[in-house]
Amino acid sequence: MQSYDSTSKKLHWLIATIIISLLIAGFIMGDLPKSPSRSLIYNLHKSFGTTALLLMIIRIIWRLTHAPPQLPTTMPKWQITGAHVTHGLLYLIGIIMPASGLLMSISHGHPPNIFGLFVINLPIPQTQQLADIFSTSHYLLGWLLSILIILHISAAFSHGLNKNSIIWRMWSKKNAK
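Above: the chain's sequence. Below: its structure in token form.
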């Protein structure tokens, strides 16, 4: 079975690690007591969220210019359709989610300071209504993205158990069958 190219694999695993870490942090950081540690976690969340947005843009450009390996012809049509829909949604929400966080932060009057290097401040009105829209969007997208990731991982392991080798396409070549 054909494997993904090394750049696709590296982007996949880097973005997956960042996004899963951001989701975990995002679900717990609001419950933390106000402290310097909480502020640090928020700042890192914003910095890595912005990094995820940039990496997703790079990944989409890479994906548009480098075709992925074909799915096996033995896969049922509904699984192929499901895989394409799920991947499309992962790409879409992988862009919208961090963008909504960036806009939420700016509309709340707390533009992100990216790793202490520079501040991203866009001409977004700082209104409670706009902040609420972006906050709600970011929260709901976090749940939707979590569900899609669980679905994606479950499907990957299912294919690994079914021995059709799809799971190995995103791992090293020495594991590909």
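The CA atoms of residues 104 and 133 lie 8 Å apart.
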